[in-house]
């Protein structure tokens, strides 16, 4: 039989452990996001911006100058300790997988950029057809 004092002590210990784990997970997430931001900004891409802000990296594109910045997506570390870009996620972040996770995120970012550029080209072509027909 467990006493109330034992149950309270166990619950307090569990909550302290959970709190320490949450802090550790946040720190790991921030370090991985910093590593990803560093990789994404290593080579400047005209009109593309990668903004590390707190616990996220904003991926943005400018069409006609800095005033027209368009957010393409955001990298965050999810509850399962994976990098997430909208609905896409990487494998779990562990000491062994960290480099692979960042590589995977760089590849996923490249895919998102190409997809955005294709959409942009398509919308420009549509706009030009409308102008020519008018």
Q: Proportion of β residues?
A: 15-25%
Record field, number of beta strands: 5
Strand order of the largest sheet: 1-2-3-4-5
Question: Averaged pLDDT, please?
Answer: 89
The share of residues in helices is 40-55%
Helix/strand order: HEEEEEH
In one word, what is the shape? elongated
Radius of gyration: 21 Å
Main β-sheet description: 5 strands, antiparallel
Number of domains: 1
Structural class: alpha+beta
**How many H/I helical runs?**
2
Low-pLDDT residue intervals, each spanning 5 or more residues: none
Query: What's the end-to-end separation, in Å?
Result: 85 Å
Ordered list of secondary-structure elements with their pairings:
Blueprint: H1 4-40, E1 48-53, E2 56-62, E3 69-77, E4 82-85, E5 88-92, H2 98-133
Helix pairs in contact: 1-2
Could you characterize what this model shows?
The chain has 134 residues and is α+β, with helices and mostly antiparallel strands. It is 54% helix and 23% strand. It has 2 helices and 5 strands. It has helices at residues 4-40, 98-133; strands at residues 48-53, 56-62, 69-77, 82-85, 88-92. Strands 1-2-3-4-5 form a 5-stranded antiparallel beta sheet, covered by helices on one side. The longest helix is centred in the N-terminal third of the chain and has 37 residues, at 4-40.
What's the gist of this structure?
This protein has 134 residues and is of the alpha+beta class. The chain is built from 2 helices and 5 strands. The protein has one domain (4-133).
């Amino acid at each position: 039989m467990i006493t109330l004092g034992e149950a309270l002590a166990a619950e307090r210990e569990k909550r302290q452990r959970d709190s320490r784990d949450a802090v550790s997970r946040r720190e790991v997430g921030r370090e991985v996001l910093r590593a990803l931001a560093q990789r994404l900004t290593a080579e400047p891409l005209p009109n593309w911006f990668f903004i590390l802000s707190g616990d996220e990296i904003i991926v943005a594109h400018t069409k006609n100058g800095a005033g027209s910045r368009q957010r393409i997506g955001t990298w965050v570390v999810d509850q399962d300790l994976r990098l997430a870009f909208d609905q896409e996620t990487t494998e779990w972040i562990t000491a062994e997988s960290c480099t692979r996770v960042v590589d995977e995120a760089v590849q996923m970012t490249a895919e998102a950029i190409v997809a955005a550029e294709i959409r942009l080209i398509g919308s420009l072509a549509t706009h030009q057809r409308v102008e020519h027909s008018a």
